[in-house]
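Input/output pair, single chain:
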Amino acid sequence: MDASWEDFGWERLGNGVGRRRLPGWDATVALVVGAEAALLFDTGSTLREGVEIRTQVQAMTGRRVTHIALSHPHFDHVLGTAAFAGAEVYGAIGMAALLTGSAGELYADAVRQGVSEEDAAQAADVLVAPHHQVCDEWTLDLGGGRQVLLANVGPAHSGHDLVALVPGSPAVVLCGDLVEESGEPQAGPDAIPSRWPAALDRLLALGGEDAIYVPGHGAVVDAAFVRAQRDRLSAAFGVS
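Output:
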């Protein structure tokens, strides 16, 4: 049942690996499927989006999402998580405590950005914090030889940036908003600009020159794009 991802608006990146660019903020969600488990990287901006993604994953693969990795604690990447009952949720260390106390802030940010008050309130009321906190690296075994490496490379774009490396030919690196293609990288109030170039150096070291890099927003890019964005950030924020 791994033949019709494109029919659901998903971009296939490899065998059992793909992503979808969600409407509104062009935020990416990605899926990695193994023989025994399936990992979703980010969950969308509302429960409505989360339910749609869950339904699509079941239709495309015949299985449910068992693992979720959250790239960072911004509303357009985390508010759909409660739609995936029973999934084990992973985030960078400190993110669980942050989300536990920030449902109101996420609600307000979502509404400011155009999410309806009803949708934002529903998602914030059942906000799911990570069950597992990644200090450095954590390898998930999805079965059938499919492993995914989660790496805490922040703080940078936020105080809690997590990326995922899917080994293969080529490898796929899920970057979250550390990398953006459809616009310039956004440095909000929780960004640590002085650490951002180093985070991208770590990202490049994980993936290497031949990897596919999947931004949090925008089209898939290569190592040269990530390196150029790293250099622009370094110049903009005066760090090496």
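The radius of gyration is 16 Å. Helices lie at 47-61, 75-78, 95-100, 103-112, 117-125, 196-207, 223-237.
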